[in-house]
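pls design
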């Protein structure tokens, strides 16, 4: 039987004489982007290994690593539970690049200080660079970068100088003599426009690495891994019809005898319109024998076991509510993931196979594992959301060595490339991702409005922001708080926007999942409305600004239609019922049909369509009950699915295409308003749950 590889990332895959000569070690402090650093380094043909943050300095020196990169992380360097590290990593003569938390560690070790600012920075910002610094050589004096942090360097350590600034916040430090560099921003992600040039400077100009590391044929290594693990056993692969599971199945078919592979498509009741039918037709054309199981009723009534409470650390468990009565997004994902395994076991039983003789294959990707904080990807990453293919039950099977995940070290674009190498047709390789839980996590379920004690104060701050040009003339206790969060340039832009456009911003009484400062957030959505046609550049600016000022907001949407005078403060009770799902299914079908016909499908990475339990435009005096729901369209652009931006109408996608979606969705019975998600990732995740 194959053994679990759960701890494989802790092993140094050294060459035969035990050396990692010339390689770069990435010390994992728990960042959501830790694996992206590894990928970026390897894209530059430099060998890299990910090791725990607590790896001793002597081990790094003995293995012959040429340089050290320390990832970001969700902790504070002053917290009692801050992860331990060996401070000697900074004094063994190796060049070090500390990213985010890594920079704060470095600064603290050499006597500098770090403190928590009143303002968070989560998003893309223009920062000033000292391009005489070796790390930034060849760059402009201002560059766009991704910042995600609450703590900031206050006093710079002796021997270091400030080499990057975001307003009054220190965004980069350097000690050129010791070859120690720190960036508060993330050079490894796509949102930092010239991040690869910074990494190239560090690896080649500073550390003296050579680009002689070429990864072996990954297809063949995947096939070898499958054959070694499975041997003569059978493999059950759960096939959604998406890119990941289809590439996984194609690999299994190539690696094994076709009789060993049992491909099953489970219709969980949360599929798109005609999805199961089209999946079956597409895969049959590829020569893949597919068994389709209709398990909608099983999923609607599915349950799982959960801790007694979030605070309870004992092994005691409770049975969850059935899925069709559950509102918590984490519980929804866990129920769906565990129900997939239960249905798979039923399929195995029907085929008279013994479960212990069958492996479960999944198209799990590296970002899935990182966001679920799986130890396969990162030992310290914060849980952002549990992926249906990384639940507790899946982890148990993985520990038993019963799960095959040949794509677990791949990111989405790499999977597409592998699919092409395997000969899969372009229409399958380029399909937009669709989550395993399907439409279940695109319905925001709720039985009561989300209104916390800060609801009124946050709404007041939003009023100051959207009416800033008038508010500066009337001193307000919260005005100074808003001003302290923005630079002079941003204040000038905000003045201009609010004097030219009549805007209103308000909290919506619902919660969505976000990622802020490498941590999961589950908090408010801000709605923005306008008396005139939307000015998208201004709206995108506000969407970047608002979550920085209001830490309880992780998402900003534009509300189409007339100016919203009375934002809803209650909700339409919403659960995963067939009627609710039918409404979303039709809205999703309409929006994607228009996107496909317009020719913009290939320019948008993913387009979740979300149903939210909000009924606008009710006269509060008539006390009309909340009975309608609204739809959100999220046009998302990314290459790594760890970070991304909303597609701006009039720039990335034609505005008339978006307006056509809005008009057609509004015709669906029961729809109150249509909204457009303006949020980048971070602070908002790709999906709303």
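designed seq:
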């Amino acid at each position: 039987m194959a053994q679990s590889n759960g701890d494989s990332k802790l092993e140094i895959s050294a060459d035969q004489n035990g050396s990692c000569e010339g390689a770069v070690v990435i010390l994992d402090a728990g960042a959501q982007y830790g694996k992206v650093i590894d990928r970026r380094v390897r894209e530059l043909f430099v060998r890299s290994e990910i090791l725990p943050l607590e790896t001793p300095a002597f081990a790094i020196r003995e293995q012959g690593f040429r340089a050290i990169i320390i990832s970001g992380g969700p902790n504070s360097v002053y917290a009692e539970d801050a992860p331990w590290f060996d401070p000697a990593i900074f004094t063994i003569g190796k060049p070090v690049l500390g990213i985010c938390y890594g920079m704060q560690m470095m600064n603290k070790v050499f006597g500098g200080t770090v403190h928590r600012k009143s303002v968070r920075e989560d998003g893309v910002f223009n920062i000033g660079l000292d391009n005489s610094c070796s790390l930034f050589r060849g760059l402009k004096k201002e560059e766009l970068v991704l910042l995600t942090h609450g703590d900031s360097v206050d006093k710079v350590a002796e021997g270091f100088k400030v080499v990057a600034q975001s307003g009054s916040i220190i965004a980069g430090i350097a000690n050129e003599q010791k070859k120690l560099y720190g960036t508060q921003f993330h050079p490894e992600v796509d949102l930092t426009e010239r991040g690869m040039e910074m990494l190239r400077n560090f690896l080649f100009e500073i550390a003296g690495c050579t680009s002689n590391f070429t990864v072996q044929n990954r297809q063949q290594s995947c096939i070898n891994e499958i054959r070694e693990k499975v041997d003569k056993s059978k493999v059950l692969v759960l096939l959604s019809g998406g890119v990941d599971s289809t590439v996984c199945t194609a690999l299994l078919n190539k690696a094994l005898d076709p009789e060993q592979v049992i491909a099953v498509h489970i219709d969980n009741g949360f599929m798109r319109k005609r999805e199961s039918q089209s999946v079956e037709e597409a895969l049959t054309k590829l020569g893949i024998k597919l068994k389709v199981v209709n398990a909608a009723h099983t999923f609607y009534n599915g349950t799982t076991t959960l801790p007694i409470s979030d605070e309870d650390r004992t092994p005691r468990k409770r049975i969850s509510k059935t899925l069709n009565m559950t509102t918590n997004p984490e519980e929804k994902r866990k129920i769906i993931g565990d129900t997939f395994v239960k249905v798979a076991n039923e399929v195995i039983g029907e085929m008279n196979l013994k479960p212990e003789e069958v492996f479960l294959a999944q198209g799990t990707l590296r970002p899935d594992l990182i966001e679920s904080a799986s130890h396969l990807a990162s030992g310290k990453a914060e849980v952002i959301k549990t992926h249906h293919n990384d639940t507790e039950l899946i982890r148990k099977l993985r520990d038993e060595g019963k799960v095959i995940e040949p794509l677990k070290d791949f990111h989405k674009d790499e999977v597409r490339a592998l699919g092409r190498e395997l000969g899969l047709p372009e229409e399958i390789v380029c399909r937009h991702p669709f989550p395993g839980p399907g439409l279940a996590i695109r319905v925001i379920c709720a039985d009561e409005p989300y209104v916390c004690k800060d609801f009124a104060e946050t709404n007041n701050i939003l009023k100051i922001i959207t009416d800033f040009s008038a508010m500066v003339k009337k001193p307000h206790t919260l005005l100074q708080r808003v001003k302290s969060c923005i630079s002079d340039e941003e204040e000038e832009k905000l003045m201009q926007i609010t004097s030219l456009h009549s805007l209103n911003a308000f909290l919506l009484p619902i919660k969505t999942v976000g990622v802020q400062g490498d941590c999961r957030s589950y908090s408010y959505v801000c709605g923005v409305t306008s008396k005139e046609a939307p000015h998208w550049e201004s709206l995108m600016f506000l969407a970047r600004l608002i979550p920085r000022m209001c830490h309880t907001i992780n998402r900003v949407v534009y509300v189409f239609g007339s100016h919203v005078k009375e934002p809803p403060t209650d909700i339409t009770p919403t659960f995963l019922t067939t009627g609710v799902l039918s409404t979303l299914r039709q809205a999703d079908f309409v929006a994607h049909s228009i996107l496909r016909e317009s020719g913009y499908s290939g320019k948008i990475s993913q387009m979740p369509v979300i149903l939210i339990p909000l009924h606008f435009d009710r006269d509060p005096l008539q006390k009309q009950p909340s009975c309608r729901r609204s739809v959100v369209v999220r046009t998302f652009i990314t290459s790594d699915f760890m970070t991304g931006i909303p597609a701006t109408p009039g720039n990335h996608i034609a505005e008339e295409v978006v307006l056509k979606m809005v008009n057609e969705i509004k015709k669906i019975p029961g729809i109150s308003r249509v909204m457009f998600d303006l949020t980048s990732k971070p602070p908002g995740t790709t999906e709303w749950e």
